[in-house]
């Protein structure tokens, strides 16, 4: 009987944690499709030659891990605010043995943008609006933004491609100069 209570407590903690964070940040931790991740990495290889790579809203860490494997000579950091996805991505980072990958638990709107860095994101349209405000406020220049599904409002992408997945998702590339 005690084991069932412990399991029930764990399940309730997990559910509450995900629900509370989703309500706070307006989007659940949703993994991108394999095809979208592949195209985002292809854009990184095409447009980004050096500098760090940061995934904003890294969720479960799938895209960060793929970027770290594909570009082992570049440092990759996944930023996530939700506790459980962060813990999961941190554990898989340690197990993967990828030396160029790290994960941080932080609010993506509280980190400064680094010139020369590339930023990957799969955020909601509302979050992309906040991101655009931050980019404008910081006068961010010399950075690459590769976004899955949602565009940066008010910016013209350098390139847009549609992925052949269930939702016909688009990936947007912005070079801020």
Query: How many structural units, i.e. domains?
Result: 1
CATH architectural grouping: 3-Layer(aba) Sandwich
Give the terminus-to-terminus CA distance.
62 Å
Parts with pLDDT < 50 across at least 5 consecutive residues: none
CATH superfamily membership, which one? Vaccinia Virus protein VP39
Question: How would you describe this structure to a colleague?
Answer:
The protein is of the alpha/beta class and 177 residues long. The chain has one domain (30-176): Rossmann fold (3-Layer(aba) Sandwich), CATH 3.40.50.150. Helix content is 42%, strand content 20%. It contains 5 helices and 7 strands. It has helices at 2-25, 34-47, 62-70, 83-96, 125-137; strands at residues 53-56, 76-80, 101-105, 118-121, 143-148, 159-162, 170-176. It has a 7-stranded mixed sheet, with helices on one face. Helix 5 links the parallel strand 4 (118-121) and strand 5 (143-148). Helix 2 (34-47) crosses helix 3. The longest helix has 24 residues, at 2-25. The mean pLDDT is 87.
Characteristic terms for this protein:
177 residues; alpha/beta; Rossmann fold; 7-stranded mixed beta sheet; 5 helices; 7 strands
Topology at a glance:
Elements (H helix, E strand, L loop, with lengths): L1 H24 L8 H14 L5 E4 L5 H9 L5 E5 L2 H14 L4 E5 L12 E4 L3 H13 L5 E6 L10 E4 L7 E7 L1
Parallel strand pairs: 1-2, 1-4, 2-3, 4-5
Antiparallel strand pairs: 5-7, 6-7
